[in-house]
Amino acid sequence: xxxxxxNQKGGTGKTTTAVNLASALAKKKKxxxxxxxxxxxxxSYSLGINDFDYSISExxxxxxxxxxxxxxxxxxxVAPTDQRLSKLEFGSKTxxxxxxxxxxxxxIRGYDFVLIDCPxxxxxxxxxxxxxxxxxxxxxxxxxxxxxxxxxIMETIQEVQSSLNKKLKVAGILPVLVxxxxxxxxxxxxxxxxxxxxxxxxxxxxxxxxxxxxPSFGESVISYSPSSNSAKDYLKFCAEYLRTMKKLS
Length: 249
Hints:
About 45% of the residues lie in helices and about 15% in strands. By secondary structure, the protein is an alpha/beta fold. Strands 3-4-2-5-1-6-7 form a seven-stranded mixed sheet, sandwiched between helices. Helix 1 (about 15-25) crosses helix 11 (about 230-249). The model has no long low-confidence stretch (mean pLDDT about 90).
């Protein structure tokens, strides 16, 4: 099962969600590969992957097998990235194919789940991720600006479904950085339920300082602070994600 974690707005917990879902799945003895497809390399940095010779760029260009690119962290595999990835997209003299990643992933075996951390923008890299995926998870903060961003994401997904990947599904919207004391939280949830034809995960990821600290130590919050609210929330979300994947398969 291939899942893209996507939001075209930065600072939405996208990378944190990809990291911690991978860690939670690994704890459940699932074999997991995470693709860092964001040229900023935040996911790679969050897991302390700072010194590597080859990145997902080389795999996409056919210079290296993906098995030569991956590194292991917390019981799962990561295909890291850095600024080389932006050169692939913006430094290329020819338009890159929307199916580079799909073709790479077709060659790998043995993973229960592949998670793709998408760029916070609509680009050929994002289209590559959506073209290769079975479904998407959309982390959003429960604020007014996120609603506008969600409308744009849904439009992008619909365009991909009509052209690149007719089988692409939306697994659900994941509320992140949630403060349950705010009235706006419940109001935004209700608005999403009423106005978008997509499921809202029941698992909320609460605001927690430990989740912000964990990347500085190169760990998921599940590893860094297993008793924190964030770790508990992501483990709960993982269980819900697994149930959702069974329904979608």
